[in-house]
From TrEMBL:
PANTHER family xref list: HTH CRO_C1-TYPE DOMAIN-CONTAINING PROTEIN, TRANSCRIPTIONAL REGULATOR PROTEIN-LIKE PROTEIN
Kinase recorded as keyword: yes
PROSITE patterns for this protein: HTH_CROC1
Keywords: Kinase, Transferase
Protein name stated in the entry: Phosphomethylpyrimidine kinase
CDD domains with a match to the protein in the record: HTH_XRE (cd00093)
Domain HTH cro/C1-type: 20-48
Pfam families: HTH_3 (PF01381), ThiN (PF10120)
Gene Ontology MF terms in the entry: DNA binding; kinase activity
Length: 300
């Protein structure tokens, strides 16, 4: 794991400092004056001046970097720019270069190829970035799955069609915004078998149930399906859940809409089955771990 700060320290800063030292020396400043302005030792300035510090050619050739060096060099040498302003100007450029596809982000991806697997634009430091959001959702699903794996007897709750544990991003619109298990969780010889690490866009059925519930007023961000039994519905109700049951013959989307119209705070949607339709319970919750915890009373 390599932090983008390491890329800045190892690739960007030595190059920019050497460029600034060179620029300031060309403007007539002494080695000691350059050292004082840059906050480094005279020996470091000497190393920069004699090419003893490795410089990144990509950083050297970027026009925004050369423009920054020129503006800061002129400002510092004339006294029109303070060291604080010079620092701010450099920091602003660094943050811009961290945007997906830009100089620092590209260098970061080269040193950490896993970042290249993520689509879309993002800044590694942005607390609201899509990358951070999706990674948090995936992490949440993993925690929920670990709870299910460690729950003795969970395999007995898996319906014939299999189970899936899903969680969506805050502004989810389609199943591509919902993370779940690729394929489904099946009961294999009394053991819940999870075929792979969670991904986005791999669950159609349970993801659609979650999205439909959210579309009709539910505040849930996660869902899990387990087998239906009247006693299980009753037990969930006894443990504080608002349970709504509906017949399987109805269109699922319409049934969920009607269920939430009658019980807006419903956290359990129980499809009681029908001809050719397996009865299933859908448990809704704030996140995947919460949903996984919610079914624990069913294991007693």
């Amino acid at each position: 794991m390599k932090f983008i700060e390491e890329v800045v320290v190892e690739e960007f800063l030595p190059t920019v400092r050497s460029m600034l030292a060179e620029d300031l020396r060309e403007r007539g400043l002494t080695q000691s004056e350059v050292a004082a302005m840059l906050g480094i030792s005279q020996s470091a300035v000497s190393k920069y001046a004699h090419g003893e510090v490795a410089r990144n050619e990509v950083v050297l050739g970027d026009e925004r970097v050369t423009d920054l060096v020129s503006r800061v060099g002129e400002g510092l040498s004339t006294g029109d720019m303070s060291r604080v302003q010079a620092l701010i100007e450099a920091e602003v450029l660094i943050r811009r270069l961290e945007t997906r596809g830009d100089l620092l982000a590209t260098l970061h991806e080269e040193s950490m190829p896993e970042l290249a697997d993520h689509e879309g634009e993002f800044r590694i430091h942005d607390p609201e970035s899509e990358l951070r959001t999706t990674e948090r959702v995936l992490s949440s699903v993993r925690r929920g799955l670990r709870t299910l794996e460690n729950a003795s007897g969970f395999a007995g709750l898996i319906p014939n069609v299999g189970s899936n544990l899903v969680e969506c991003s805050p502004d989810a619109v389609t199943i591509d915004d919902v993370a779940g298990v690729p394929g489904r969780i099946f009961d294999v010889k009394g053991r819940a078998t999870i075929p792979g690490d969670p991904e986005f866009g791999v669950s159609e059925h349970v993801a659609n149930v979650l999205l439909t519930a959210r579309e009709h007023g539910s505040e849930a961000s996660a869902a899990l399906n387990v087998r239906y039994d009247p006693s299980l519905s009753a037990l969930l109700s006894e443990n504080g859940h608002t349970v709504v049951e509906f017949e399987g013959e109805k269109d699922l989307d319409e049934a969920i809409a009607a269920a939430l119209d009658s019980e807006p705070d419903a956290t359990v949607l129980a499809q009681t089955g029908g001809f050719g339709i397996e009865p299933v319970i859908y448990v809704l919750g704030e996140d995947a771990p919460a949903v996984a915890e919610a079914i624990k009373p069913l294991l007693r």
